[in-house]
Amino acid sequence: MDNLSLLEKFANPDLMQKLSIGEKMLASLYVMVLGMAVTFVALCILWGLIVLMSKMINSTKKEATKVVQAPEKTIAPAVEVEKEEKENEEELVAVITAAIAASLQTSTHNIVVRNITRVKDITPAWGRMGRIEQMNSRF
Which residues does 28 contact at the CB level (< 8 Å), separation at least 6? Predict the structure, then answer.
């Protein structure tokens, strides 16, 4: 039996009813494989186009990038800022101690904060804005 004639019979509803179960299963398998092959080829073409466009965009960005040096800025002495930071650190220690005591369900007298290490926030700007918008939408 020719595969093409089987698919032609499968396409015609009157002839399809005359096919045996084995022929129907075989024709279904052909249709499935053909559909998957067409989808795979289309996805490969899309992938190739995306790679090509990204290379074209990246090559234009590299040409347009120029290094510009900013003038040096003088830093004014910050005596008052140190006092303010010390007050903020004491408040920060109190807040951290209270939070730990609340989570452990114990007294603040049992907890001693010895060292606070600030970690630089590496969240991108769009991530910070998303958090801010999310928090503002709750109020």
Answer: 10
d(CA 6, CA 1): 7
The CA distance from 28 to 93, in Å, is 70
pLDDT score of 111 more than 80: yes
Spans of all domains in the chain: 3-63, 86-137
Task: Enter the tokens of residue 20.
Answer: 């045996």
Q: State the pTM of this model.
A: 0.39
- Among residues 95, 87, 132, the alpha carbon closest in space to that of 111 is found at 95
User: Quick count: other Cβ atoms within 10 Å of Cβ 100?
Assistant: 14
d(C-alpha 1, C-alpha 51), whole Å = 43
Do residues 96 and 104 lie in contact, with contact meaning Cβ atoms separated by under 8 Å? no
Distances in Å between the Cα of 88 and the Cα atoms of 80, 85, 91, 93, 101 are 12, 5, 5, 9, 20
Distances 68 to 58, 65, 75, 84, 99 between C-alpha atoms, Å: 20, 10, 21, 35, 46
